[in-house]
Design goal:
Length: about 160
């Protein structure tokens, strides 16, 4: 399970929520995922995103899959994964960062979201704390990430004891 930030190209005449509602209504969990077929403009967006994240945030690893393009940050404060599908994208952060590490990793995630918004025109929203990524507060997201991470560590981890 990951902390997810959603980015979507808002359809003309619709709100972010209306666009998401239409995308969700069209989703068929039984169907195969559509193969990634980016337009030249979308491929150029990806190249700009990859370049800026590498320059402004630091080293990344990048892969192209059948269904998305992916980049992952490398090194401290922690891994942030960004998946790009052209008109939609997603940022994922593992629930394993406690405070203050949670703040550093969420500042990184929000910085990536803002770069994506600037380079692609996608609109980002963090539904975990119900705030847009463009103007939202990474500290609010970090409090949520850290809280869930702490709860999971306390309630879901098993201590290994030896007889």
């Amino acid at each position: 399970m990951t902390y997810d930030i959603t980015l979507v190209r808002v359809r003309p005449g619709l709100t972010l929520q209306e666009t998401l509602d239409r995308l969700n209504a069209d989703f068929d969990p039984e169907a195969d995922l559509p193969l990634l077929r980016l337009t030249d403009a979308q491929r150029a967006e990806w190249d700009r995103i990859l370049d800026r994240v590498s320059r402004e945030i630091g080293p990344v690893e990048s892969e192209e899959y059948l269904y998305s393009l992916t980049l992952e940050t490398v090194g401290p404060p922690g891994r942030v994964q960004f998946d790009y599908c052209g008109d939609t994208a997603n940022i994922e952060v593992a629930y394993r960062h406690s405070r203050p590490a949670a703040l550093a990793v969420m500042e990184r995630a929000y910085r990536i979201a803002r770069i994506v918004e600037e380079e692609s025109g996608l609109t980002g929203h963090d539904f975990e704390v119900d705030q847009p990524t463009r103007t939202g507060d990474p500290a609010k997201a970090a409090a949520r990430l850290g809280g869930v991470s702490d709860w999971a560590q306390h309630h879901l981890s098993r201590r290994i004891t030896r007889p």
